[in-house]
Amino acid sequence: MTTTPEAKNVVLVHGGFVDGSGWRGVHELLRADGCTVSVVQNPTLSLEGDVATTQRVLDAQDGPTVLVGHSYGGAVISQAGNHENVSALVYVAAFAPDKGESVNTLIADPPPGAPVPPILPPNDGFLFLDREKFAASFAGDLPADEARFLADSQVPWGLDALGGTVTLPAWRTKPSFYLVATDDRMIPPPAQRAMAERAGATVSETGGSHAVYVSKPGEVAALIKKAAAGATA
């Protein structure tokens, strides 16, 4: 059993196809609770680049910090979380790769019957989701206009981000927490549970789409605050 030191700093890392603005609801709740919150804006061109960007934000923290990742952001925090300021990791419907794994290897062999994310063929080295299928796959519990905005404002996701491998998974040495979105149609909930179990994470579950960090900010913030409070993992 490991007890995380109490942390007042939180760093939020977004996933692929989106930017950091989706964290606004979580940001507001954590700020209201007295946390110092930073939102990383990763270019999502390569895992290496995103880890470096995240580590620069971690460099600016003045003490123990909870590092939070959604979706592909889980791969980023798995590597960047080795930073000395990181006291705990929080995965929100996120990938948690082990050494030598990438998002690409984790999605390579989906279980029979699992929803297949509507990722279009690469265009000049970048990936997008089919706009017309975005809402159903990524944001099924958001208002239609909000889901449409996410679809229309997609950030290109680089193949080097998809294929970037983790070399030293921080969850092997840092306490971790995991929020499973049980209605996720991008990362199957059984895969989320398996990654959380492998990481030895403290697990919470909630009904929610892949965009659970937007649709359920209260539940996301509650798990982050648990990690920040020096909870036992």
Automatic annotation (TrEMBL):
Pfam families per UniProt: Abhydrolase_6
Superkingdom in the source lineage: Bacteria
Gene Ontology terms, MF aspect: hydrolase activity
Domain AB hydrolase-1: 10-222
Keyword Hydrolase: yes
Keyword field: Hydrolase
Protein's name according to its UniProt entry: Alpha/beta hydrolase
